[in-house]
Amino acid sequence: MNFYQQPPEDVLSSLNTTDKGLTSEEVKKKQEEHGYNELEQKDRQSLFSLFIDSFKDPMVIVLLIVAIIQIVLGETIESIIILTVLIINSILSVVQTRKAEDSLASLRDMAAPSATVVRNNSTQSVPSKEIVAGDIVILEAGNNVPADGRLLEAESLQVEEGALTGESIPSDKEAIMISEETALADRKNMVYSGTLVTYGRARYVVTGIGKETEMGKVAELIQNVSAKQTPLQRKLESFSKKLGFVILGLSLLIFAIQAFRIFSGNGPQDLQIELLNAFMFAIAVAVAAIPEALQSIVTIVLSVGTNKMAKKHAIIRKLPAVETLGSTGVICTDKTGTLTQNKMTVVQAYLPEHEQELYSSEPTDWSFGENRLNQIAVLANDSSLNEEGEASGDPTEVALINYSNKIGLPFSDLRNKFPRIEELPFDSSRKLMSTLHEIDGEKLLLTKGGPDVLFKRCSKILINGEVVEMTEEYSKTLYEKNEEYSNQAYRVLAFAYKPLSKEELDLEDENDLIFVGLLAMIDPPREEVSQAIKEAAEAGIRTVMITGDHKTTARAIALDLNLFKEDDIALTGQELDALSEEELMEKLEHISVYARVTPENKIRIVQAWQNKDQITAMTGDGVNDAPALKQADIGIAMGSGTDVSKDASAMILTDDNFVSIVSAVAVGRNVYSNIKKAIAYLFSGNLGAVVAIIAALLMNWINPFTALQLLFINLVNDSIPAIALGMEKEEPHIMKQNPRDPNEGIFTGQTLQSVILRGFTIGIAVIISQALGIYYFGSPEISVAMAFTTLILSRTLQVFPARSNTQTSFQAGFFSNKYVVGAFAVCMTLYEITMLPVVRPIFNIPNAFGLTEWSIAAGLALATTIILELKKLVFPSKLAD
Known about the structure:
It contains 32 helices and 26 strands.
């Protein structure tokens, strides 16, 4: 049986303690057996280990082999360049990994630094880490709860548990018996570590410390949830492995063919030189095929996406999350503050003579009942607003004074006009608050509280300005109206008063009251959210509400937002627990609302969607959300949330608004589209180089490129246009398509077609150029210069057709992406530098290479671009993939 279901004496007995607390010896013994009241943390991976791990990529391994061979052959410049690139990429990877702060550190920071306990028959303050199970702790308003425990005494106790339960308002606590099994948020006789006492005082016995607390369970969940790779990371890793093995195999095959030719056709005197040339040929293939700058370019494009998202109130903490958000198929969202305004608002006013959504007339034209209702709402109220409009106090009380201000009766004027004489503070046991004021020369007791309680205290009722006896018929009407409001998920308060001649109050004065009316409040949906949910649906994204609030409230908000459809289901956490995995998977797509959920529930929901191959986003702001935020493909924390939730997330919403998520999804989809464009651009050019090298091998020509030429193209020339493609604007259809299949490879559909078409088109142009150099100009050196020029110009020019698979550069707006035009200009300038007399020897370009040779090479390069753009007009594609 759980502690909250046991009588206090049984709890004390099971913990080997009494209501007078423990002795120092007992505390020491328990600390030796069970440890301290603190959260444990797993050792982090060392920086060196992270650095080494970054070299395990197959393409990186191939480049390392190439660099080592270059060093052995004395080609130090090429090897230094390759090693420098690899080290820079590794450092970037390590820094990015270390930037993810430790969520558990924030959890530990939430622990109270000290606590008041009863030990050795005396009250004393001790460090919270020294608390043990069985300690008697004293709580007062403003205290952080240091450990989980069962209440022994509670006076008007209210605890802010939102970070743990998702509740939007403080929870009332009582030292009562609870026999049935209940959700965490409904355990009114328990308090939990990391929560805050906002009102009242209490004594409780500690039932759990450290990892045994609810906060500790959250910490353990966070530790046990492994970091997930994004779809792009998984596909790049898979592609990298395949490409690495293909390149290695191709290089070895080429070397084997060359070696066979050497041993079968040449004399032994040329063996060493010929084998060296064969090595260089094989190395050229590896260097040509591997896009050395790929990791850096993807990182830069993702960074561009983070800047765009920041302008839409979405701060990215982990770069890959930009792309992940674009592939999201399900958004599991919190209700409070995300779908709603997180601001309790008065929406209905009920007086026995009539009902209206809001007071319909000016305050000067109000009935006596309307005036009296507003007076009670403002005066029997402890909340306030400062000059900046910042509120302090209970959210429901703040809603009352906000409403008074809104209707033209500043709450401060009412309080100055009718000052409080005496009060009976709110008490969770009686659920009432009363204050005494002199209004129009008469002392009045003004009372507000829970409708069920207040109805029983009223013997009279105010109707049309007259006080009459409360009849059974009136009472029945009031109960029906309260139930009607409750079914609409409203938070309802009742208001009453009575004349009172004395100035010292006691609890008996809260009887024989005159009922005035009801005010119904709700945390209303954000006006723009309904349209955002509709846009998400059009983009094939399912929205699911997961909240700590009651099911009725959650379902009502979901209906209002059109998130809950006719055949949909709403479940509580307990109802979810009762479902088997098979039953959950069967019903999953029909469950739109989960209420009263636990951290374990949230993880299970996210995992269920992931098991259906859906990229799942999860929003949250509390400690209880952190494990699910980490489990999700992309965790989205609220800017107003806890540090724990932010640390566990990949993205933070600065405005806590669901609309910003949908806007960020559009940016994410565009970022992924641009990354694919950049990758396709890089591999198209590399494929062209490989095709030319293989053709030269088959034709027994000289190697068309040197390793340095290829490194220059891959690292310098191609990088700038690839980054510019990352700035490409969003294509119009991007939010009208379903999310892509997470199992879809990088090179599929039109992307694969365009890479093959562009690669072979460039390769053929380079082959023709080298052939002209060999057979027309009769010079192997000229043929290499012409092949290099054709390749670099073709790859530079192909940035224009690479902008879109469906539109030509002119259809997309030639100058709409000024970065592409600028990248082309920079690349042409860099190429001209290689033509300078002092630079030519470095790039193996002979002085005999002149305007005629350049014109032929440039003409072939331009022809490739024209062919690729004409293809889009002759064979148009419907949509880009």
